[in-house]
Specification:
Helix content of chain A: over 70%
Radius of gyration of chain A: 20 Å
Shape of chain B: globular
Oligomer: heterotrimer
Largest sheet of chain A: 2 strands, antiparallel
Largest interface: A-C, 40 and 44 residues
Structural class of chain A: mainly alpha
Distance between the termini of chain A: 25 Å
Largest sheet of chain B: 6 strands, mixed
Order of helices and strands of chain A: HHHHHHEEEHHHHEHHHH
Distance between the termini of chain B: 41 Å
Helix content of chain B: 25-40%
Strand order of the largest sheet of chain A: 1-4
Chains: A mainly alpha (about 325), B alpha/beta (about 250), C mainly alpha (about 300)
Strand content of chain A: under 5%
Number of helices of chain B: 10
Structural class of chain B: alpha/beta
Strand order of the largest sheet of chain B: 6-7-8-3-9-10
Strand content of chain B: 15-25%
Number of strands of chain B: 10
Order of helices and strands of chain B: EEEHEEHEHHHHEHEHEEHH
Shape of chain A: globular
């Protein structure tokens, strides 16, 4: 137990020091990792605990980003308003759209969410009187915490990651709670879950709304980081990236989500050094993970650990 | 003075495609009793269970639970009222441990909102504690303690059956529908099951039982024989076994 | 809302609808043959079209040969995907979700490959029947579009004959309904599955090749066609690949008629909304029997 605490302390120490020792572009990527962790957390909850593939996260990411951009730049309101507005709009939309769409299951649901993301992407593009279209909205101010302006990646890093940790704590609460039990039951056998009076439809909708909240939060954080938002950031590709986070890292573990977020932010960056071929390699990496590591990286780690434990047991016995 | 039956089926009829699966099925289940349903394969027993528990809406007829017609009540609503069923193949939650499976059975007894769970309020923590306690007691009672932390997927058929029953019972049902509970069990396990049915009934749980196993069926006070969707004979086990129609149904077909 | 406007919309709708039908039939065929929802179906279209473009412009092949080359490219990629990935995952009893994620990953990879090898620009192909148009009541329809519709109808009929009359086609149907039963009668189930992917690839490629003279092909066309092809397949009832023909036509018409008077940029929004609504309200499609419901 103490060894685990030790490693957590080490990890925290590394985390605290990291933005100061790495070059600025890496610090920038680390901020993105935090933002993506938040978005991916929601998707992970749906995937790992409900067995739902959600390809609509870019919709809510975009709503959060545009809400923050619009409220601060167009209406001159404090940034907190943008966060709240984005969250409220996203949750409302998730509820309204979620109720009917979540009656679907399996690939119908997955493709329904994909269609939703495509519709949102098209509307972000079409309604340029609201979103600025491809020209976007620029000049989004950096966040200002009681006078302390978060204008550097190394500063914003801490804000983003603390929000991310809070989201992880909330997600963990959910997983370990009565709701978490019901979600896993629903995932394993919806027939039996129904016979035990679990409200399947209600649960699915509510987790979808929570996922949208996380997406919106990530989007608002993104807006204040990039200072400029435009439609290119909220396409179906982005939704796919968000889905990759729990797929690659492992949907049911929080370190897995972080691992997945690291993968999704850092790998394209490193591969870009190899030239334009990097996107192909990224796609291939995804295919490789899906084919060979169905439980993601964390699942593979778990299996390696189990295999090692079995070997040790065999030797000792 | 007879008490109101806990379950009343009246002229239940149902069809799949062109096939009449159930026809004018009418019987009562007295509160506190054990009622059995027998009949050859395809006679509509599982369909009847699906209708009573809410998985299917019958084309004709009504089901009344404790005097109130169920109409379009959802599966979940029926469960909350105390009407719980098990399945022919035990539907355990494969990736969850035995203990967690039992905990899910307790979930319907408390009511936390998702917001409370997200924020881990004292109310949420308290209810989780209660759920754990109830589940511990149930595991103790049903002799599942040894299997407690194993994934349900690794259980044998007999163990799954007990787990499924334990999970259903911990939610304090009034009427328990057991669909072929002996399928996949060996003789010893069937004996064990039989004891459990008697014990649970002794505590006041009404039981409606479908089974092929005539030995298990002796536990029922009344048995109805279903043949191609119609009840052809009713009575206690001894009467049924003497009934020429039942013989015809099982031997003559 | 003049008659010629409506007629114009009908022309556009039927033309687009045929493209969606081809893509959708390929998707439905793959689903019927292997229970895999091919999220990269549209990429077959892009690959087929791009191959034809390259063979025509870079290798100087005559147009018919280039078209055949494009169709062949679709077939080969389909076969490759089945052999390299699907077979392996099927053996490991991969979940439905995993297959979906696989095809999504492949769609990403292929789209990125097109971007890498060909660049961002769109490419056109020469229209069949020349540049001419037919004018009916002030509504215009290109000769190529007429050819497209004719070929689409022909392909549907051929496909029908294939499934119902040829040994290979009947075997494919059998293998998809009951793999074990099919295997006992000597049908090589794995090879049948490869054939369905080949068929899907060819149909997808055909759709891409035929649509390129009208709107051009670029690396992003794939996703759009996949979603619309899927909508066509669902509308027609996933259990019957031929239903996608009706589904595609319906989708094309609804799409075109709905945007009369609104900007045409809402076309996709309409199509994708139709998909969502149909999945929720009529998952068996307008033609299908109560087959497999809602995924």
């Amino acid at each position: 137990m103490t060894s685990r605490l030790f490693w957590i302390a080490v990890a925290l120490a590394v985390w605290a020091v990291l933005p100061f020792v790495v070059p600025r572009n890496i610090a920038d990527l680390l901020v993105f990792t935090g933002i993506y962790s938040i978005a991916g957390l929601g998707i992970g909850l749906l995937l790992g605990h409900c067995g739902i593939v959600n390809l609509a996260q870019a919709t809510f990411y975009g709503l959060g980003a545009y809400a923050s951009a619009y409220c601060t730049v167009m209406m001159g309101l404090p940034s907190a308003v943008g966060f709240v507005a984005g969250a409220v709009i996203s949750m409302a939309l998730a509820y309204v759209i979620g109720r009917p769409i979540l009656r679907l299951t399996g690939y119908f649901l997955a493709l329904g969410t994909l269609a939703l993301s495509a519709i949102a992407s098209a509307l972000f593009f079409e309604w340029d009187w609201l979103t600025g279209g491809t020209l976007g909205i620029g000049g989004i101010p950096k966040l200002d915490l009681f006078g302390f302006v978060l204008d550097r990646p190394s500063r914003y890093y801490f804000f983003v990651w603390i929000v991310a940790f809070a989201c992880m704590a909330v997600a963990r609460n959910l997983v370990n709670s009565r709701t978490g039990l019901m979600l896993r039951a629903m995932r394993d056998s919806s027939t039996a879950a129904a016979s035990l009076s679990i409200d399947l439809q209600g649960l699915r909708t509510r987790v979808f709304v929570v996922c949208a909240l996380f997406g919106s939060l990530a989007g608002s954080l993104f807006a204040h980081h990039a200072s400029f938002v435009s439609t290119q950031s909220f396409t179906v590709d982005r939704s796919i990236s968000f889905l990759l986070i729990p797929v690659i890292g492992g949907a049911t573990s929080i370190p897995g989500i972080v691992a997945g977020a690291v993968f999704v932010t850092f790998l394209p960056e490193f591969l870009s050094k190899l030239g334009d071929i990097h996107q192909i390699l990224f796609g291939l990496a995804l295919v490789a993970v899906v084919v060979m590591l169905p439980d993601g990286l964390m699942g593979a780690v778990g299996r390696i650990r189990a295999w090692r434990a079995a070997r040790r047991g065999g030797d000792a016995g | 003075m007879p008490a109101e039956p806990i379950l009343s089926l009246n002229e239940i009829g149902h069809r799949f495609g062109g096939l009449n699966v159930l026809r004018s099925v009418t019987f009562d289940v007295p509160e506190g009793g054990i009622v059995g349903l027998i009949g050859p394969n395809g006679s509509g027993k599982t369909t009847l269970f699906n209708i009573v528990s809410g998985y299917i809406r019958p084309l004709m007829g009504t089901v009344a639970y404790r005097g109130v017609p169920l109409l379009r009540d959802s599966i979940q609503k029926r469960g909350l009222a105390g009407l719980v069923r098990t399945f022919q193949t035990p539907q355990v939650f494969e990736q969850m441990t035995v203990f967690e499976n039992v905990m899910v059975g307790c979930a319907k007894l408390t009511r936390t909102t998702m917001l409370q769970d997200l924020l881990r309020t004292p109310a949420a923590r308290g209810q989780m504690r209660d759920i754990r306690e109830l589940a511990e007691a149930a595991c103790e009672r049903f002799h599942l303690k040894g299997l407690r932390d194993l994934p349900a997927a690794s259980l044998t058929a007999g163990q799954r059956r007990i787990l499924e029953i334990a999970r259903a019972v911990v939610g304090k049902p009034r009427l328990l529908l057991l669909d072929e509970p002996s399928s996949g069990l060996n003789a010893q396990e069937i004996e064990n099951l039989r004891d459990w049915i008697v014990r649970l009934n002794g505590e006041g749980i009404t039981i409606l039982l479908v089974s092929h196993d005539m030995g298990l069926m002796t536990v029922a006070h009344t048995v109805h024989t279903l043949y191609f969707g119609e009840i052809v004979a009713s009575g206690d086990m001894a009467t049924i076994q003497r009934d020429p129609r039942v013989r015809e149904v099982y031997l003559g077909v | 809302m003049t008659l010629s406007l409506v007629l114009q919309a009908v022309f556009a709708g039927v033309t687009n609808g045929m493209v969606y039908a081809l893509v959708g039939m390929g998707l439905a065929a793959i689903f019927k043959g292997s229970r895999v929802i091919n999220a990269m179906q549209g990429e077959f279209s892009v690959i087929g079209a791009m191959t034809t473009v390259l063979l025509l412009t870079k290798a100087g092949w005559p147009y018919p040969a280039a078209i055949a080359g494009g169709a062949l490219a679709g077939a080969l990629v389909g076969a490759f995907i089945e052999v390299a990935f699907v077979r392996y995952m099927a053996k490991k009893n991969a979940s439905e979700d995993s297959f979906l994620l696989l095809t999504i990953g492949l769609a990403l990879t292929l789209s990125a490959s097109i971007l890498f090898f060909v660049g961002r620009d769109g490419h056109l192909l020469p229209p069949l029947g020349g540049e001419g148009v037919l004018i009916v009541l002030d509504a215009v329809i290109q000769f190529h579009a007429l050819w497209l519709i004719a070929i689409g109808i022909g392909a549907t009929l051929l496909l029908r004959a294939f499934f119902h009359r040829t040994t290979v086609g009947l075997s494919m149907m059998a293998a998809s309904i009951d793999a074990d039963g099919a295997a006992t009668t000597g049908i090589n189930v794995a090879r049948m599955r490869t054939f369905t992917f080949v068929l899907g690839g060819v149909l997808g490629a055909a759709g891409g090749i035929l649509v390129t003279p009208l709107i051009g092909v670029d690396y992003q066309l794939g996703l759009n066609l996949t979603l619309k092809g899927f909508a066509a397949a669902v509308l027609g009832g996933l259990t019957n690949p031929l239903g996608a023909a009706v589904g595609g036509l319906t989708l094309g018409l609804v799409e075109s008629l709905a945007i009369i008077g609104i900007s045409s940029s809402y076309k996709d929004v309409v199509a994708f909304s139709v998909l969502i609504v149909i999945m929720i309200l009529m998952p068996q499609g307008i033609l299908g029997r109560a087959g497999r419901r809602g995924g």
